[in-house]
Write a structure and sequence with these properties.
Number of strands: 10
Strand content: over 45%
Strand order of the largest sheet: 3-4-5-6-7-8-9-10
Helix content: under 10%
Shape: globular
Radius of gyration: 15 Å
Order of helices and strands: HEEEEEEEEEE
Distance between the termini: 40 Å
Length: 167
Amino acid sequence: MTRSFRRIGALCASTVAAVSFAAAAAPAHAAAGDGFEFTLYAKQVPPPAASESNPPPKVGDTPVFADDLYKTKGGDKVGRDGVTCSVVRISGDQVDMNCVGTIVLNGGPGGQLTAQALTTFDTSNENPSAFDIAVTGGTGDFKQARGYIRSTPDGDYDRMEFHITTR
């Protein structure tokens, strides 16, 4: 699999994706106390026997991804995510993937976030573009969560900027 194709695991979190905090890592609360804004760094956990020489994607392929989440690059691990994608369209080097992910949040605040995105990836580009992931719900402190996560490639990590409302 090419590096850009594997990067979808950032949902991909989020996928999207994308989340947990140690008690000392309190996120900034949104203006009216009805949400959270914070940044975490996701690093993909390679699957067993991962290889750079996998065949190109086909419609119907369902890659899965997992990331460990950190407060800072190489810092304290504060959570994890899991993402499932489906390849729904291919046009040349452009691959459309519908991805759904769950982000586990540890410490305070705590709970889970669910997220999804239909995103186009260019398999010939070693520097994937940033993309937004819709937050579709949550549990615990993130009950009734809505918002988005901006996922941006950042070296061996993906920077995930969370913009969450809980009203």
